[in-house]
Amino acid sequence: MARFRDFGVTPGLLPAGNRNAITDVDGVSVGHRTIRQGDINTGVTAIIPQPGNLFREKLTAAVEIVNGFGKSTGLVQVAELGSLETPILLTNTFAVGTCANALVRRAIAETPQIGRCTSTVNAVVCECNDGALSDIQAMAVREADAVAALDAACVEVEEGSVGAGTGMTCFGFKGGIGTASRQIGIADGIRHLGVLVLANFGRAGDLVLPDGRRPDPRAAAGRSVSGDTEKGSVIVVLATDVPVDQRQLRRICRRAGAGLARLGAFWGNGSGDIVLGFTTANRIAHESKHDLMVMERLNDARIDDLFRAAAESCEEAVLNALCAAGPVEGCGGLSRPLLSDWLREA
């Protein structure tokens, strides 16, 4: 599996974490369930923010809607309450409800009081449309696939054409799952910010690499891209172990959009571009007996490093998704070229 740095270019200024992945944030794990059967190329990717019962011990969270052409679930409550109480599942557009059901059943199994003598649970599922390379009408994702992705979660993150990224396209190349991270020095210690992306966005010909090169996936075929529309999507999941409040976290999430813009994205009318962020540092008890809560919060004067980390991690995560992606053949033999091939030949 290739990553962008394997081709001799190091994006950004901040140092990457040891894995250069969202799992550099301690406690975060990622799993995939990949479904490839005939014309079906789809799947589920699970991000488990922390071990244990998330419903009982929620995490501070925020969401930034860059462009809202999307069918995700759970984001309204995250935006309103500033908390995350389930793992995050990524999948295709028509599998959102199925994956939400799997999260609800899992939460009820852990906390049988849900929906009866305590509140219901807010299942968070985000999506991109993989219909170009997969028969999305087959409704191939089952609850068992979501459970399998959750059960497969670990700290080593597989990238490219796996899980939810199996059938995705990015800037005309094969897209998919990518991740990256940055280290930040705060309070005489090293903290981390990591990003995982589901990359299914960008107009062919618009991609700009950090060294200024502009790979065009259709240039060799002599086809113009000037009339193409941007109608894909990208889901960015951002994690940090820096103690921040919801307001600060939303500001950090907003800067992930700078990473997308550096690559040439302009968030077209038909693009669903969503950033969902959480911090592992500030827990929120589901049932607290205290009227007041004490939480740590970063000094705003130190937040610029997190802004830079969000932009750099997002940019590199997308590049890693593009470089790690392997060949996928969809309906009628349709496929997408690989950026890794272009970089090897350049």
UniProtKB/TrEMBL annotation:
Which is one Pfam family of this protein? Peptidase_S58
The question of whether Protease is a record keyword is answered with yes
One GO MF term on file is:
aminopeptidase activity
Key words of the record:
Aminopeptidase, Hydrolase, Protease
Q: Which SUPFAM superfamilies match?
A: DmpA/ArgJ-like (SSF56266)
Q: Which InterPro entries match?
A: ArgJ-like_dom_sf, Peptidase_S58_DmpA
Q: Which family does it belong to?
A: Belongs to the peptidase S58 family.
Q: What is this protein called?
A: D-aminopeptidase
